[in-house]
Design brief:
This protein is α+β, with helices and mostly antiparallel strands and 441 residues long. The protein folds into two domains: 2-154 and 307-436, 3-Layer(bba) Sandwich (FAD/NAD(P)-binding domain); 160-302, Elongation Factor Tu (Ef-tu), domain 3 (Beta Barrel). The chain has helices at residues 8-19, 60-69, 74-81, 94-107, 136-146, 191-203, 224-228, 281-288, 313-316, 341-360, 373-381, 414-436, and strands at residues 2-4, 25-27, 51-54, 83-84, 89-92, 111-113, 126-128, 151-157, 160-162, 172-174, 184-189, 256-262, 269-272, 299-301, 304-311, 322-323, 326-331. The strands form four sheets. Strands 6-2-1-7-17-16 form a six-stranded mixed sheet, covered by helices on one side. It has a six-stranded antiparallel sheet with strand order 10-11-12-13-9-14. It has a three-stranded antiparallel sheet with strand order 3-5-4. It is globular and about 70 Å long. It starts with a strand and ends in a 5-residue tail after the last helix.
Length: 441
């Protein structure tokens, strides 16, 4: 079994193969060659933060960990072994974590080959887990298999808010000029609100990009704050254009409008249209709460703009992370559009299990049930849960784990509703793990 890429996803995939009786060959180009973001010689290097987010099972990240614990995750086990004090957050000693993951893989019998792979191997099956900084040569090989239009190198992500946190008394549903169904939620602004919002955008602090992320902006994904700096009326002729969006409550067109677009089929998540941004997360929460209807909005994902390599998974992959056109090829990790350390590890874990099932021919591929965060995320990136039908013109954007991916029980109290979602997820995961996962040797 060949796995290309020694990050979190690749390490997790190799571990699952090896501990379930298969022979895993893991290719990693370090230390002979490194991406601009890497410094360690060992595997599973954490590039950005050393935090793996909350341990609280009442949060989406905590629930994901609880599910992965039931799937024998290597990354989670080593993270807990090398953790550092961080309150309710799981944070690790980066170097100790990377060293220990590498040791565990060797102990499990994984064959680690330290050389660069420049084309997709002919082995069957093969797991591609080369991450967001995939080398140019290997990206070119991926491109040959998926097509230029399905491979992205620049990630412009707009914030996503939970629908339940929007004050719909201040918004209205409409499509521009009433063309088609009223699918957009519109947040109208008067002149004073608009001017204050633009001033706040310009004054807010932005994230300074890494040197290796110095990809220039292009017009199709300009940060909202960069547009605002071009002039006070720029946004009114861009993403906040009010033309064709008459407010039915007043019979008049607002001075400006922020449009929210449904992000998933259930309508539990809404995307701020055209609001890709490089503002710091704290600044996003402060500035975007000035938008009418979003004063108390809760964010499932905040915006960012950075260099990234990922494929158009909903149009390419099955929910088992197999390439539809070439089922021998599995993709795993951030290159599939999952976002976050644990999400990447989850993707690798499942790709490893399924690639071994395919190689051994013992049973069909598996995926956790949709009641779980794990299963819901896999369905989202495969198009099962994303609102990305043929009539959708917007490209796929990466997603992290969040409760908006799960069906919401009809319980009005938010705390009780989340508790029920957690209860259903854990019960579903326990059943699935007992019925579907092969025991480790």
């Amino acid at each position: 079994m060949v796995i290309v890429g020694g990050g979190l996803a690749g390490a997790e995939a190799a571990f699952q193969v090896a501990t379930r009786g298969g022979h895993a060959v893991l290719f990693e180009m370090k230390p002979g060659r490194r991406s601009p973001a890497h410094t360690l010689d060992t595997l599973a290097e954490l590039v950005c933060s050393n935090s793996l987010k909350s341990n609280d099972i009442g949060t989406a990240s905590g629930l994901l960990k609880a599910e992965m614990r039931r799937m024998n995750s290597l990354v989670l086990a080593v993270a807990e072994e090398t953790s550092v004090p961080a309150g309710g957050t799981l944070a690790v000693d980066r170097e100790a974590f990377s060293v220990r993951v590498t040791e565990r893989l060797k102990e499990a019998g994984v064959e680690i080959v330290t050389e660069e792979v420049t084309s997709i191997p002919d082995d069957s099956p093969v797991v591609i887990a080369t991450g967001p900084l995939t080398s140019e040569a290997f990206a070119a090989s991926i491109n040959e298999h998926v097509g230029t239009e399905n491979l992205y190198f620049y990630d412009a992500v707009a914030p996503i808010v939970y629908a339940e946190s929007i004050d719909t008394e201040k918004t209205y549903m409409a499509s521009r000029y009433d063309k088609g169904p009223a699918d957009y939620m519109n947040c109208p602004m008067n002149t004073a609100e608009y001017e204050a919002f633009v001033s706040a955008l310009i004054e807010a602090d932005s994230v300074v990009p890494h040197e290796f992320e110095s990809t220039p902006y292009f017009e199709g994904c300009m940060p909202i704050e960069a547009l605002a700096e071009r002039g006070p009326d720029t946004l009114m002729f861009g993403p906040m254009r009010p033309v064709g969006l008459v407010d039915p409550r007043t019979g008049r067109r607002p001075h400006a409008v922020v449009q929210l677009r449904r992000e998933n089929t259930e309508g539990t998540l809404y995307n701020l249209v055209g609001f890709q941004t490089r503002l710091k997360f704290s600044e996003q929460k402060k500035v975007f709460s000035m938008i009418p209807g979003l004063e108390s909005a809760e964010f499932a994902r905040l915006g960012k703009l950075h260099r990234n390599t990922y494929i158009d998974s909903p149009r390419l992959l099955t929910r088992f992370q197999r390439l539809s056109s070439e089922p021998r090829i599995f993709f795993a990790g951030q290159i599939t559009g999952v976002e976050g350390y644990m999400e990447s590890a989850l993707s690798g874990l499942l790709a490893g299990i399924n690639s071994l099932l395919v190689a051994s021919g013992t049973s069909p591929c598996v995926v956790p049930p949709p009641e779980t965060i794990s299963g819901a995320l896999m369905r989202y990136i495969s198009g099962d849960g994303a609102d990305t039908g043929e009539d959708s013109k917007r490209p796929f954007q990466p997603m992290n784990s969040n409760f908006g991916l799960l069906s919401a029980p009809e319980i009005r109290n938010k705390k009780e509703r989340r508790a029920k979602q957690v209860e259903l997820a854990i019960a579903a995961m326990d059943r699935w793990a007992n019925e579907s996962l092969q025991p480790n040797d």
